[in-house]
User: Which sequence fits this backbone?
């Protein structure tokens, strides 16, 4: 494996930092932890969790990485917009609504659908920007 085949940790953190600034979620709580996913937004505490497990990202995983980060940032944007406690209540209400309708609390959850659409819609733009900047 060539060194070039990996995205350095510095570049990875720089991409995250650029995204957090762009989407103005700098005031949201961030926690670094070892976990399977690249990022996770904890609705219960209003915290954006970032994985420390991937020091580097393989080029084949960049799309997944960008979609995940942007998806979770969208939750952070919602949380900032409504206030995290209020958003927690809204999110729980939505989960219960889906369960009551016999649907899936995550897959059919409007906040999850919106976040995923946002990630899918925006990752290509960021891919191009980061490519141009030499970060990937
Ligand atoms: Zn989500």
Assistant:
């Amino acid at each position: 494996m060539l060194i070039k085949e990996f995205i350095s940790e510095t570049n990875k953190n720089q991409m995250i930092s650029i995204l957090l600034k762009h989407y103005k979620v700098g005031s949201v709580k961030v926690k670094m932890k070892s976990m399977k996913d690249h990022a996770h937004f904890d609705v219960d505490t209003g915290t954006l969790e970032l994985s420390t497990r991937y020091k580097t990202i393989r080029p084949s995983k960049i799309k997944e990485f960008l979609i995940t980060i942007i998806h979770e940032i969208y939750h952070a944007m919602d949380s900032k917009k409504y206030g995290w406690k209020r958003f927690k209540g809204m999110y729980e209400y939505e989960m219960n609504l889906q369960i009551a309708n016999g649907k899936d609390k995550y897959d059919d959850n409007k906040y999850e659908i919106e976040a995923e659409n946002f990630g899918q819609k925006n990752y290509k733009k960021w891919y191009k920007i980061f490519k141009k900047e030499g970060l990937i």
